[in-house]
Specification:
By secondary structure, this protein is of the alpha/beta class. It is built from ten helices and 17 strands. The chain has a six-stranded mixed sheet, with helices on both faces. The chain has a three-stranded parallel sheet with strand order 7-10-13. The chain has a two-stranded parallel sheet with strand order 1-2. The longest helix has 24 residues, at 133-156. The protein is globular, with a radius of gyration of 20 Å.
Length: 354
């Protein structure tokens, strides 16, 4: 998603950091899109390394306008089978990267009295599921920390903002990269969306930082709503639905938990993952959840009875509160927005893509 976001800005300058092969490929795509790619390989679990990386960005581009925290590592395993070291590593990469990255960005943003920190968190930040418990815990921590920080920034009166983009299931290489201790290959639930949907949504969030959160699609809204209304029923549903996260076959490799996945083979994994046939380019609808001003309570849009419509998709392991083709009623102030459609294909299209 980070790579797709850098390319989707189409002309904006971008700084990216990941494994060497993927980093070089992402920078090349940014340049072909008309932007300027700054290569900064950084270990996001090292706060000193991140502090050293933010200054070259500010020096090259004048200031830091948007900082997106989206580092990922995961373990697919029943809780007792995930070792303490593995759980610690997932927490460091997925959770603490947001602490270190946001601190580095905020050291520059108040100086210009502007800027946006965007944290990427799926609905698992509000509702955990079986098997990736360490990842769910890290995302829960991000959500709580983001809410606290937003209050502090409002109190200080700065125009720097933090927001959280709640993305649906996205077709990225992450499912082939996670470390797995269970039989079968890790796979996403449905519906699956292409990375360009998440990329354009993050671009929207950066342009509208006054929102506490941006929710993309009904599949991101359903789990936290279900958890609030029928938590016991949801627990029982999820207890017997973990097979929806697995495909037949053997999981390839040891994942990227301890080192970038592109290092051993020297390959570039690109932005999209292997689930192109199942994915939908931009069919989901999203909504903004506005953050009320401290001085103007009750500023929420009064759109009672607003709804999100989900498209008819294959029902393999899908969690839903309503029919496959129906309306999701929302009893809260919300402003509906149409999710962006699919953008132009990358100039470096993979051979097997349709």
């Amino acid at each position: 998603m980070g790579r797709a976001t850098a390319v989707a800005t189409l002309g904006d300058r971008a700084a990216v950091a990941r494994g060497s092969a993927g980093l070089a490929g992402a920078a090349d795509e940014v340049r072909h899109a008309g932007g300027e790619g700054l290569i900064l390989p950084v270990d996001v679990t090292d706060p000193k390394a991140i502090d050293r990386a933010d200054q070259p960005v500010a020096d090259a581009f004048g200031r830091i306008d948007v900082w997106v925290n989206n580092a990922f590592a995961g373990v697919v395993a029943p809780f007792p089978q995930a070792t303490p070291d593995e759980c610690r590593r997932v927490t460091e990469v997925t959770g603490l990267c947001c602490v270190f990255g946001t601190r580095a960005a905020l050291s520059h943003m108040p100086l210009n009295n502007r800027g946006t920190n965007a944290q990427v968190g799926p609905a698992l930040a509000y509702r955990g599921i079986p098997l990736p418990s360490a990842y769910c815990g890290a995302k829960h921590a991000i959500q709580g920390r983001n809410a606290s920080l937003r209050c502090e920034l409002l109190h200080e009166g700065t125009r720097a903002r933090t927001t959280m983009v709640q993305v649906p299931v996205v077709n990225t290489p992450q499912f082939a990269r996670v470390l797995s201790h269970v039989p079968g290959r890790a796979r996403p639930g449905t519906p699956v969306h292409e990375p360009d949907l998440a990329a354009r949504s993050m671009d929207h969030a950066a342009a509208h930082p006054r929102r506490l959160a941006v929710w993309i699609g009904g599949s991101t809204v359903a789990p936290p709503v279900g958890n609030a209304l029928v938590p016991g029923l949801l627990n029982r549903y999820l207890a017997y639905g973990d097979d929806a996260q697995l495909d037949e076959g053997e999981h390839a490799g040891t994942g990227n938990l301890w080192s970038p996945a592109d290092t051993p083979r020297g390959g570039d994994f690109w932005a999209p993952g292997p689930f192109d046939v199942e994915s939908r380019p931009g069919g989901a609808q999203g909504m903004d959840v506005p953050q009320p001003s401290m001085g103007r309570p009750g500023r929420l849009h009064r759109l009672w009875g607003s709804a999100l419509r989900t498209q008819d998709v294959p029902q393999r392991g899908r969690f839903q509160l309503g029919p496959s083709r129906g309306v999701w009623p929302l009893r809260a102030g919300a402003r509906c927005l149409a999710a962006p459609g699919r953008g132009a294909e990358s100039p470096h299209e993979r051979p097997h893509r349709r």
